[in-house]
Amino acid sequence: MKDESQRISVLPSGSDLRLPWHLRLPGPLERDFAEFFRNSVATVAPWAALNVILLLALALALECYISPEVAARTWRPRLLCAMLAVATILVARRSEWRRWLHTVSLALAFAVALTGDWMGVAVNHPLGFSLFLQTPLAILLMSVLLRVPFYGAVAGSVALIAALAASLRASPHIGLELSLVLLLLSLASASMSLFGQYIYERLLRQHFLSENVLFQHRDELHSANRVLESQATVDGLTGCLNRRGMEARLDELLHGFGRGGAGERASVLLFDIDFFKQYNDTYGHQAGDECLKTVASIPRALTQGDKDFVARYGGEEFMVVLANTSLKDALVFAERMRTRIEQLGLPHSGSRVSQVVTISVGVVCAGERAADATTLIKCADEALYQAKGAGRNRVAYMSDQGRVATL
Q1: Is residue 222 part of a domain?
Q2: Does 165 share its domain with 203?
Q3: Average pLDDT over the chain, rounded to whole?
Q4: Of 316, 335, 368, 382, which one is the catalytic site residue?
């Protein structure tokens, strides 16, 4: 029996997926693979087409050397093939034209083979049979160099061999024995190149599946990391930032001072629910949780800036940070928040200042010479303490001179 410690659970990589013998994938995957295949072929197709152009030029030069009369018949078909090779290069290099790459590649292979068949029939020369060898070369070009998809290469090879057989039958210069040799050579070329193309496409499809599976794993892992990050920085009850998230956001905001230009300011509002312990004692902890969620929804609805945030500082205590906000505007925000929470009308018979839930707020504003987050929070806490000492259900603030006053 294997030891439990030796059982290692690994994520599937895609290499363990079974690929059907016919290579076909489900519809959406097959469409994605077709694009993936074209893009992979497009990197080598220009070089393959350039190789074809060089071979055509070499063949024409050799024909001119052997027999100018033969070259007079062959230069036009050679030029047609060279033009199609140039078109293949252009299509491969332009992404918006790339969907026609396999079509142009097939056209080039057919042009090479069929012009060879035509020249083999038309040219009466002892070496004229060599022109029929363009058919096996076209099959190699189609399957090995330009990598036409397997089923397209099969259909193209059958058509080219059939055209070769018809041309050999029509040629008055080629005997039966040589015709059989040429056909056998073409069949051998087709069988070997198609087998290689099948293996290549199968491996490429397997690689595509592996990449697809790994991409899904990365996407799932990224989503899981975002969930974990949210759980680590967001309070599950109120939806506000928790203490950890608040410290990170406030430090980031203060460290950014001086980078966005002069006049940067930020305000910190610290508030808690008046006599919340009595609320819990009177209505129960479940009602207390609902009260916290309802109260927290008010500042969350009022904050509008991208850098503004609301955090649950601890228990019934909350913090609101307003970026690029002056002390005057922060006081307006605090008073509006206090009023709206009072207007909620949440019953609170245990409060000694009102029959509904109220809050006390401490406000401090930091400019470019702001101290660290700890000092800023301490100043807001002093203002909150002053608001409580002055009778609760009010807003207190620390001025630029360090004095605490209430509204």
Answers
A1: no
A2: yes
A3: 87
A4: 316
d(CA 402, CA 364): 9
End-of-domain residue from the set 181, 216, 251:
216
131 plus 170 within the same structural domain: yes
**Which of 102, 95, 115 lies closest to 143, judged by CA?**
102
The whole model's pTM is what? 0.55
Q: Which of 113-117, 264-268, 291-295 shows the lowest mean pLDDT across its residues?
A: 264-268
Query: Is 264 annotated in the active site?
Result: no
What is the pLDDT confidence band of residue 14, given thresholds at 50, 70 and 90?
low
| CA–CA distance, 146 with 45 (Å, rounded to integer) | 6
Check whether 67 has a pLDDT greater than 50. yes
Kindly state whether residue 149 falls inside one of the protein's structural domains.
yes
Identity of the residue numbered 382:
E
Domain range for 290: 243-406
Domain total of the chain: 2
Question: Which residue type occupies 365?
Answer: C
Distance of alpha carbon 54 from alpha carbon 51, whole angstroms: 5
Maximum distance among all Cα pairs of the chain, rounded to whole angstroms: 118
